[in-house]
Amino acid sequence: MSTAMHDTIASSGRASDSRVLRPGELDLTHKVILYLEDISVSFDGFKALNNLSLTIDAGELRAIIGPNGAGKTTMMDVITGKTRPDTGKAFFGQTLDLTRMSEPEIAHAGIGRKFQKPTIFENHSVFENLELAMKTDKRVWKSLFAQLTGDERDRVSDTLKRIRLQAEADRPAGLLSHGQKQWLEIGMLLMQEPRLLLLDEPVAGMTDEETERTAELFVSLAGQHSLVVVEHDMSFVEALGGQVTVLHEGSVLAEGSLAKVQNDPRVIEVYLGR
Ligand SMILES: Nc1ncnc2c1ncn2[C@@H]1O[C@H](COP(=O)(O)OP(=O)(O)O)[C@@H](O)[C@H]1O
Ligand SMILES: [Mg+2]
């Protein structure tokens, strides 16, 4: 890693220390982990988010559906600090105002995001990828050669089991299937012990079996973690089994069980009208 890049990471880490609670200290009074109220985001006058309000409970597994352009990814951009809302409130737990935090501060506070394109280290083994993700010290080479403690080794093993890559632990990550790479990336997120996981179209390109395994993984993570999953695949959303929020034109159109929202005439019209 270049010195400049390392300096950036180091300084952002320092900035977060004074303002952000440790993840374990997240204030979950009222059981709410994420609170969005009247969020609006405009791009050149076009409202990508339009008075969006949404509440996610601690431990919840929430699916977000909606046609292309509904604002799903923009919503995740707001939660992670990538995009600043023009108006509205965004809180992580009771006290952390996401609109006032930087992207690294938000990540450090316990919000992990999985992007569609995996950002794994292809030339390193699956095990090493998880090891690197665990290290708060982002100096890659130093981390790799430092001895793991027993606890750290156990954490990597637990995660390998969880993402079903035990048999692949010593293989270069670049040799994994598409679905396995996605799981590895999820495992890397888990190594950072996020309280809230944001996953944007996680099963795109996966086989049916990989998709089923991914639903099982997410169901197993709920409770200990909170998950917000954007997905188009309705059989996957059904397998998640949680509450579903339908976004349309930057607002919440409907919310409830999948069966309930699928029978909502407004939802049917939005999907059929396209
Ligand atoms: N950076 C951007 N600049 C301009 N328009 C954008 C930008 N990001 C998103 N949009 C627009 O905002 C709308 C919502 O996009 P997005 O959040 O990606 O929707 P979804 O993820 O639901 O498909 C779309 O019309 C998209 O073209
Ligand atoms: Mg999107």
Automatic annotation (TrEMBL):
Pfam families named in the record: ABC_tran (PF00005), BCA_ABC_TP_C (PF12399)
CDD domains found in the cross-reference section: ABC_Mj1267_LivG_branched (cd03219)
Alphabetized InterPro entries for the sequence: ABC_AA/LPS_Transport, ABC_transporter-like_ATP-bd, ABC_transptr_urea_ATP-bd_UrtD, BCA_ABC_TP_C, P-loop_NTPase
Alphabetical keyword list: ATP-binding, Nucleotide-binding, Transport
GO cellular component entries: plasma membrane
Molecular function as annotated in GO: ATP binding; ATP hydrolysis activity
Presence of keyword Transport: yes
Protein name per its UniProtKB record: Urea ABC transporter ATP-binding protein UrtD
Organism: Denitromonas iodatirespirans
Biological classification of the source: Bacteria, Pseudomonadati, Pseudomonadota, Betaproteobacteria, Rhodocyclales
Protein encoded by which gene: urtD
